[in-house]
Amino acid sequence: MGELDAYCRFLIEQRVTPSLAILAARGEEVLIKRAYNQDDAIYDLASLTKPCLTAISLMLLTMDGLLDPDQFMADMMPGTHPELRLHHLAAHCAAMPDWYPYYLFPEPLGQQLETHLRAAFPSRQVIYSCPGYSLLKKIWEWVIAPTSIANWIQGRIFSPLGLKDTFLGGDPRYVGSTQVMPTEAGNVYELQLAIQRGFTDRFGSFNWYEPISPGVTHDLNARHQGGFGGNAGLFSTASELLVLMNQCDPDTTQLFKGREELCRWFWKNLTPWSPAHRTFGFKRNSSFSAAAGSALSRKAIGHHGFTGCSAWMEPKGGLRLIVLSNRIHPRVDESVNFNRIRRRLFRLMVKEIG
């Protein structure tokens, strides 16, 4: 048994996570593909949704001439800060809150998001923001109306790429499926977060302990938007996530054929003044404490998901490293430093490739 395989089995045996899938590739060539617990398992990718679906989709709208990462938000919504651009939201430097329980308030979501947008401004501070990506989803909806986002995604991304086991949370074909790995047994973690942030007066009869069936999005804001919130709601396998990641590299993209220059937005450091280097959707490995660490170069880009997922890639058809897990099942164990675990997994994957 090799060192990588032994460590993966150790994580399962010690109940750090009930399941694990790892994949390493060079461009489209798969070098390592292993599953611990179940082959071809589907995972709730949580915040990997931001780069691997929302950012890609916004760039496709740019290719269509309907959006521009440099465009001012005031052109779409009068009253917005005159210097705020679309890429500020995508790179988490728009002074948006990091988290907000929209589902606890009676006002329509669109109204709440517009309030946050009018308060946003270009900031010299990176604040990782889930609401920022909920807002990007709302902008996306405005642009493609009356087409639904689900139909648009199927027609522009999932079908052209031949993705069979990639879907948006709540898809009735997958809810309750044994192929989908379960997440938290109720949103206890988010309940604790709401208490810490002072939202207890808004709880009312809200049921934080409602069971979450496999295939139902773990993130509550995304779930209350029909399963997809821009910030979360994408489900996939390791193999199909690789296909999505490859769309962001001009050397391997299919979706941006003929407009490969648009992929530069996924790699360009939009926050060079911050220790947290952000691109259009991704984090760069040049960031302080980036999880890819020494396994990849500083030019690598990637992202994580709260459920225990992570994916990183080198430019120019280089290495791709994917770790999928459901480490939050049946509960979130905050005593475990999963970022450290991911770093070790990435190092061992690179070591085995040689």
Strand content: 5-15%
Largest sheet: 6 strands, antiparallel
Detail the poorly predicted runs. none
Helical residue percent band? 25-40%
- The strand order across the widest sheet is 2-1-9-8-7-6
Number of helices: 11
Rg calculated over all Cα atoms: 19 Å
* Head-to-tail CA distance between termini: 16 Å
Structural class: alpha+beta
The CATH C-level name is Alpha Beta
Mean pLDDT: 97
Query: What is the CATH architecture term?
Result: 3-Layer(aba) Sandwich
Q: Secondary-structure element order, as H and E?
A: HEEEHHHHHEHHEHHEEEEH
The overall number of domains is 1
Anisotropy-based shape? globular
CATH superfamily: DD-peptidase/beta-lactamase superfamily
Do you know the CATH topology?
Beta-lactamase
Secondary structure: number of strands = 9
What does this structure look like?
- By secondary structure, this protein is of the alpha+beta class.
- The chain has one domain: Beta-lactamase, CATH 3.40.710.
- Helix content is 31%, strand content 12%.
- The chain is built from eleven helices and nine strands.
- Strands 2-1-9-8-7-6 form a six-stranded antiparallel β-sheet, sandwiched between helices. A three-stranded antiparallel β-sheet has the order 3-5-4.
- The longest helix has 16 residues.
- The protein is globular.
- It starts with a helix and ends with a helix.
- The mean pLDDT is 97.
